[in-house]
TrEMBL record:
Its EC number is 2.4.1.1. GO terms for biological process: glycogen catabolic process. One of its GO terms (molecular function) is glycogen phosphorylase activity. It is an enzyme of class 2 (transferase). The modification N6-(pyridoxal phosphate)lysine is found at residue 675. InterPro entries: Glycg_phsphrylas, Glyco_trans_35, Pyridoxal_P_attach_site. This is Alpha-1,4 glucan phosphorylase. It holds the Pfam family Phosphorylase. Belongs to the glycogen phosphorylase family. Allosteric enzyme that catalyzes the rate-limiting step in glycogen catabolism, the phosphorolytic cleavage of glycogen to produce glucose-1-phosphate, and plays a central role in maintaining cellular and organismal glucose homeostasis. Phosphorylase is an important allosteric enzyme in carbohydrate metabolism. Enzymes from different sources differ in their regulatory mechanisms and in their natural substrates. However, all known phosphorylases share catalytic and structural properties. The keyword Phosphoprotein does not apply.
Length: 827
């Protein structure tokens, strides 16, 4: 229907209690920014004008703390962290900045004096399109937590001009259009025109013999692209520290071939500029073509090279040489995207700074650590050797040498040919490809998983051989989320209730949520807890009506699955069970059905056709179910388009049931499960990723666990799994699949989903059919519990009370102590 800006969540008062002088000073600052920087007049200013003016006024407060933080770090010569990530899904920043600085009420009252509403102003901010899902949101949480626990840090990534696509659903089909989040400007960033680094591609490598007889490799690049820095301040809680998010924008060294232009080739004269600037244009360009694959490799090397050049420059500004780099800097590789940085740091140290190979390798391993986020072999990046040799010829030489020495050590340690093949950085079995996960592993002193189960499965499966050969380098650091964003700002109603019930200390210490436990059986508190949820559900119902024209009942159970669309996350299992429920409701219309709203949101990669089919199926099921009068409104299905951080902030406080139903053993961790449980949603899920740890903390009576375990999944796959037999043995599953395959939900094209269902019968690699009956049974248990409000709200309160451990502050302190060797506060 429409995709207008979402209103910001109501910003809580937090801990600030401003006096009139502070309010007046902030009001004067906003007015000055409006007049002199926005160029507006108060009587004619638009909400967007007021947003820019307010953000700039807040930014002035941040800059002073930013400078203080950087000056203190330099003067104390503190070790810091550099966090390299392809994604930083930061969302809106105004509410974070005001909240963490204690200026929310100051800004609210200042704007009220001008006849302007803060929540309306904050809702004008665009979501930065710098990420896709959990990987980018985790990076954003970690950056905020590093500032909050006083860890000096730089985040390094790419300033995507369009970022991830904006999702439009037309006729049930996902369409991708550019996300122009920078079209109206970004008041938070500072362009650093003096910080430009050359990033090289292509060309050839020649050896030169120096006067001392040593041989030096010289890379004669075929193309040079400039990396221009843009800095965004990241404010910690209570303004304790302000760190830096430094994003790189690609620029051509010669943006216009003037001779070609004057000869009339007006388009061709800008081809070099377009090729260079494509690097920072779009996050995850389609990789079905070789050109798309090459662009992804160029992106990854571009930001890794610029970031490492910047890291070395900053180090040498305070220290005489690079031999002690690891004593002052820790570099975290967030997944395999920045893994080429291992070879790049070796190139910089050996080729440019003249360090001996062994010394450079010692420094490199001591500097880097690597976070793995997947157990899916296909998601562990590999690059074709011929493309690597063409795009990064010097790096391919370095990788060959790293690999030769790595294999020599393994062979000396007793590795046979089979083991050597498994641990080699070059996969010789599939057309010779560079294994980037292997490169990151070998080049790092620590490799961590992101949940206890995931880390153990890394040891047992994808990295078992490497861990054996390289020594036990794998450790676990279970993910966390920043409670400032996902509780204080996203759910101010619940935050106020918590402060009233257990005191303001809960704002500073997430572990104080445990003080809620005695209130879980308090009927009056349960009613207050339910009331704030009801208000959030009313807001979400209004949003759904505005976005897709569907009216839903806020008193219904809101059953939510919001995440990237992928087969292993099993949105298909949820949809099939929805169809089974629909069939049952039509067959037994007089039964006591619990009103339920199934809410989906998420994007599919442009080239992931099966995921896009799942989105279409969800929308087709919604179209039939929502228009069926025989259901009397008891079941509704909503697919909300263009999922992003702001939409998540609207959905999560209103969710009653959290769908975390990935195939066990395939979800590394998840963070949506933490956000939803924190806000009091009950989880229905497999024992996968961080669900295992949520289950341990909230108690099995307060979560709905179903399905095969990771061990059972592996055994089922080893033994060979027959999906047809499973469907034949389950009438409800068979009925749902038959309805989908026969065109009940696609009457204009009856065969639309026949291939999807047949594919499931032929190769159900994610065991949708194997887990269906268990899932369906637990969904009935969910309905039964919802029919007992006292029991439901007791469990909801206990979910909020018991998940304080999942704060990203805790995670960052663990990284700081166990991996990075940096100081953090111990509060």
């Amino acid at each position: 229907m429409n995709d207008s800006p979402l209103p910001a969540p109501g910003l809580p008062a937090g801990f600030d209690a401003p006096d009139e002088a502070a309010v007046k000073a902030f009001r004067d600052s906003i007015l000055a920014k409006l007049v002199y920087q926005v160029g507006g007049r108060p009587e004619r200013a638009s909400p967007r004008d007021w947003f820019i003016a307010t953000a700039l006024a807040a930014r002035d407060h941040i800059v002073d703390d930013w400078r203080r933080s950087n000056d203190q770090t330099r003067s104390d010569d503190r070790k810091g962290v550099c966090y390299l990530s392809m994604e930083f899904l930061i969302g809106r920043l105004l509410s974070d900045a005001l909240g963490n600085l204690g200026l929310t009420e100051t800004a609210r009252r200042a704007l009220e004096g001008l006849g302007v509403d803060l929540d309306t102003v904050a809702g004008q901010e665009a979501d930065a399109a710098l990420g896709n899902g959990g990987l980018g949101r985790l990076a954003a949480c970690f950056m905020e937590s590093m500032a909050s626990v006083d860890v000096p840090a730089y985040g390094y990534g790419i300033r995507y001009e369009n970022g991830l696509f904006r999702q439009v659903i037309a006729g049930g089909i996902q369409h991708e259009v550019p996300e122009d989040w920078l079209a109206l400007g970004n008041p938070w960033e500072f362009e650093r025109s003096g910080l430009v680094y050359e990033v090289r591609f292509g060309g050839h490598v020649r050896s030169e013999v120096s006067v001392d007889g040593s041989t030096r490799m010289i890379w004669h690049a075929g193309e040079i692209v400039n990396a221009l820095a843009y800095d965004t301040p990241v404010v910690g809680w209570r303004g304790k520290r302000v760190n830096t998010l430094r994003l790189w924008s690609a620029r051509a060294t010669d943006p216009l071939q003037l001779g070609d232009f004057n000869r009339g080739d007006h388009v061709g004269s800008q081809s070099a500029r377009m090729r260079a600037e494509a690097i920072s244009r779009v996050l995850y360009p389609g990789d079905e073509s070789e050109a798309g694959q090459e662009l992804r490799l160029r992106q990854e090397y571009f930001f890794a090279s610029a970031s490492l050049q910047d890291i070395l420059r900053r180090h040498l500004s305070n220290h005489a040489d690079l031999s002690n780099l690891a004593e002052h800097i820790a570099v975290q590789l967030n997944d395999t995207h920045p893994a080429i940085g291992v070879a790049e740091l070796m190139r910089l140290l050996v080729d440019l700074h003249g360090m001996e190979w062994d010394a450079a390798w010692t420094v490199t391993q001591a500097v880097f650590s690597y976070t793995n986020h997947t157990l899916l072999p296909e998601a562990l990046e590999t690059w074709a050797v011929p493309m690597m040799e063409r795009v990064l010829p010097r790096h391919m030489q370095i990788i060959y040498l790293i690999n030769a020495r790595h294999l020599d050590r393994a062979r000396t340690g007793g590795a046979d040919d089979m083991l050597l093949s498994a641990v080699s950085l070059i996969d010789e079995r599939h057309g010779r490809r560079v294994r980037m996960g292997h490169l990151a592993f070998v080049g790092s002193h620590r490799i961590n998983g992101v949940s206890a189960l995931h880390s153990q499965l890394m040891r047992d499966t994808v990295f078992a051989d490497l861990n054996q050969v390289c020594g036990d380098r794998i450790t676990n650091k279970t993910n966390g989320i920043t409670f400032r964003r996902w509780l204080h700002r996203a759910n101010p109603g619940l935050t106020r209730l918590l402060v009233d019930a257990i005191g303001p200390a809960v704002l500073d210490d997430p572990n104080r949520l445990a003080d809620l436990v005695p209130l879980a059986d308090d009927a009056a508190f349960q009613q207050k807890f339910a009331a704030q949820r009801r208000a959030a559900k009313e807001r979400l119902a209004s949003l759904i009506a505005g976005r897709i024209g569907l009216r839903v009942d806020p008193d219904a159970l809101f059953d939510v699955q919001i995440k990237r669309i992928h087969e292993y996350k099993r949105q298909l299992l949820n949809i099939v069970q929805t169809v089974a429920l629909y069939n049952a409701m039509r067959a037994r219309p007089t039964a006591s059905w619990v009103p339920r709203v199934k809410i989906f949101a998420g994007k599919a990669a442009p080239s992931y056709h099966k995921a896009k089919d799942i989105i279409r199926l969800a929308n087709d099921v919604a179209a039939v179910v929502n228009d069926d009068p025989t259901l009397r409104g008891l079941l509704k299905v909503a697919f909300i388009p263009n999922y992003n951080v702001s939409l998540a902030e609207g959905i999560i406080p209103a969710a009653d049931l959290s769908e975390q139903i990935s195939t066990a053993g395939l979800e590394a961790s998840g963070t949506g499960n933490m956000k939803l449980a924190l806000n009091g949603a009950l989880t229905i899920g497999t024992l996968d990723g961080a669900n295992v740890e949520i289950d341990e903390r909230v108690g099995r009576d307060n979560i709905f666990i179903f399905g095969l375990t990771a061990e059972e999944v592996m055994e089922r796959k080893r033994a060979g799994y027959d999906a047809r037999a499973a469907a034949a043995a389950s009438p409800e599953l068979r009925g749902a699949l038959d309805a989908i395959a026969s065109g009940v939900f696609s009457p204009g094209e009856p065969g639309r989903y026949r291939g999807l269902v047949e594919g499931l019968m032929h190769d159900d690699r994610y065991l949708v059919t194997a887990d269906f009956d268990s899932y369906n049974t637990r969904q009935r248990d969910v309905a039964s519990r919802w029919s007992q409000p006292e029991s439901w709200w007791r469990s909801a309160v206990l979910n909020t009370a018991q998940v304080g451990w999942f704060s990203s502050d805790r995670t960052i302190r663990e990284y700081a102590a166990d991996i990075w060797g940096v100081a953090a506060d111990d509060s």
